Amino acid sequence: MSHRKKVVIIGAGAAGMSCASTLAKHPDLFEVTMIDPEPQTGGQATSISLNESQHGASWLNDGVQGGSAIFRHTFRFFRSYGYEPQPVKLQVSFGKDRNNFWTNVFPSALVKQHSREIKKLGRVLRCIKYLMPLLGIFPVKFILRLFRFSHDFSNKMVLPLLALFLGTGNQTPNVSSVLLERLFDDPQMRLWDYDPDTLLPNLPLMYTFPNLGSFYCDWASDLGSKGVDIRLNTLVAILERKTKGIIIQTTPNDPHSQPPGEPLTETFDELVFCCPADEAKKLLDRHATWREKYVLGGVKFFNDITITHFDSTYFQSIFEAQYHPSLCAQSTSKERRDQIAFAKQQAIEMGFDCTNYQHQFRESLGEGHPPRPLEEHVFQTIYLNDQLKGLWTWNEIEPSKIIARKWWHQFGHRWQHYLRVVPGMMFINGQRRTRYAGSWTMVNMHEIACISGIAAAYQLGAAYEPFDDFAEDFFAKYLLVCHGTRYKRSKPKQT
Ligand SMILES: Cc1cc2nc3c(=O)[nH]c(=O)nc-3n(C[C@H](O)[C@H](O)[C@H](O)COP(=O)(O)OP(=O)(O)OC[C@H]3O[C@@H](n4cnc5c(N)ncnc54)[C@H](O)[C@@H]3O)c2cc1C
Question: Which Gene3D superfamilies does the record cross-reference, listed alphabetically (predicted)?
Answer without folding.
Answer: 1.10.405.20, FAD/NAD(P)-binding domain
